[in-house]
Amino acid sequence: MIDYNQILNIPPYSYRKKEKEDFLTAILGELTKHHYQKSPLYKRMMDTLNFNPEAVIKSYQNIPFLPVSLFKELDLKSINDDEIFKTMTSSGTTGQAVSKIYLDKETASHQQKTLVKIVSNFTGSSRMPMLIIDCSSVIKNRAMFSARGAGILGFSIFGANKTYALDDDMNLNLEVIEAFLEKHQGKPIFVFGFTFMIWQHFYKELKKQNIRIDLSQGILIHGGGWKKLKNEAVSPQAFKECLNDVCGITKVHDYYGMVEQTGCIYMECEEGHLHASIFSDIITRRPIDFTPCDIGETGIIEVVSILPKSYPGHILLTEDEGVILGEDDCPCGRLGKYFGIHGRLKNAEIRGCSDTYESQK
Amino acid sequence: MTNIEKYIQSFTAAFDIEAEQCEGLEYQGIETWDSVGHMGLIAELEDVFDIMMDTDDIIDFSSFEKGKEILGKYDVEF
Fold it and tell me: Which domain holds residue B64?
């Protein structure tokens, strides 16, 4: 049995390469056995691949991955239907299938706890007034969350006096924002939103209306991908500079994560690198034969997470391309791998948080 | 209003339940006390008692009973 309560108390960036590999191999091996026993579909796939979860696993890198798109085609779960507590859905444009991720109470609770451990490493443990760059209607359907709703809700725990900066038509709610800022003048403020929403509905609007607000005490965490902004040729650096220009914010952290492995996000550090915590890891693989890439070599990203217990999503091959920049030696001091994302694989299905939004328009 | 009355009222408001249902209630025990409802409850309590809870306490706030113990840390006595 995996003792999550104990594991979640380990500082998230405290293991060096060897220690982390042994730790992940043990837990992911256990999880593989668990899913093999509980999910007939998973068992069938492992059997087809001739993979025996009972055999000695030398490294978690050798456990077969599932392509992330499989969660769109199949109902993959390792729990009974009456144990389903929440179903999360990924983004997907109209006509595309969406991933369905089935959570029981245990897995849902571990996701939230893990998120707290990772994010508070960057924000500190005290909560701050929170400004959400989105509209409140995204969390309306409580039993069925979109990636956007789940993100907002998960991060809400770091905030107090939560305020939504946009109205339901995605217009900037200036009156509300100004009242919020006045109330919390001089205090650190937590700002959260999705990269594209922030650009489109916050930055561009402030710029257009020639309004400057003061978020110099703020810390912004944003995620959801750069695909749409790449089309507009906005680089991460330009994103930071432009935001600083309209609201004076200096602390800006991107994160990489996906609904299939909620909780285990990869936060961008002060050096601009995305970091893997001890609760998860990334492997880059060569498209030609799926062998692991070297440091500095671009490949397809595989993500592993110790959290997925109610569904067999612990080892997934994403549709993203990226590069591992180093391990255990980032100048920010955090141990583990650090990496960058190049974007979506060519010809991969269009997918990303901001694309969900497109389907609603 | 006494602290216990305020405490119960926060639950009834956050979860749309009757006061009699509060005793013995646990996180995820009723449909409305899910992760959304949980943050709603925390907001209610912080408002009524004029406190700001730590993230760890929000996570540990797993039942009606446990919550009283946690609020003790913020000098809310029952």
Answer: 1-15+33-78
ipTM for the predicted complex comes to 0.76
How far is A32 from A273, CA to CA, in rounded Å?
Answer: 30
Left, alpha or beta for A208 (phi > 0: left; psi -120 to 50: alpha)? alpha
> Parallel, antiparallel, or unpaired: how do β-strands A189-194 and A218-223 relate?
parallel
Q: Identify all chain A residues contacting B54, using CB atoms and an 8 Å cutoff.
A: 125-127
Interface test with B, best of A112, A115, A119 (most B CBs within 10 A): A112
Q: Which of 1.25.10.10, 2.30.38.10, 3.40.630.30, 3.40.47.10 would CATH assign to domain A14-71+271-344?
A: 2.30.38.10
Q: What is the pTM of this model?
A: 0.88
Fold observed for domain A116-256: Rossmann fold (3.40.50)
Q: Is A158 on the interface with B (CB under 8 A)?
A: yes
Structure confidence at residue B37 (pLDDT): 87
Which residue type is seen at A102? Y
> Which among B37, B52, B59 has the least Cβ separation from residue A127?
B52
Residue B9 lies in a domain: yes
Number of domains in chain B: 1
Contact A153 B56 (CB under 8 A): no
> pLDDT tens, B20-62?
999 999 998 898 898 778 988 998 999 999 998 988 899 889 9
Residue at token pair 């108390």 = A9
**Contact between A116 and B36 using a beta-carbon 8 Å cutoff:** no
Contact B66, B60 (CB under 8 A): yes
Please state, in angstroms and rounded to a whole number, the distance separating the CA atoms of residues A148 and A157: 15
Of B34, B43, B59, which has the smallest distance from its Cβ to A113's Cβ?
A: B59
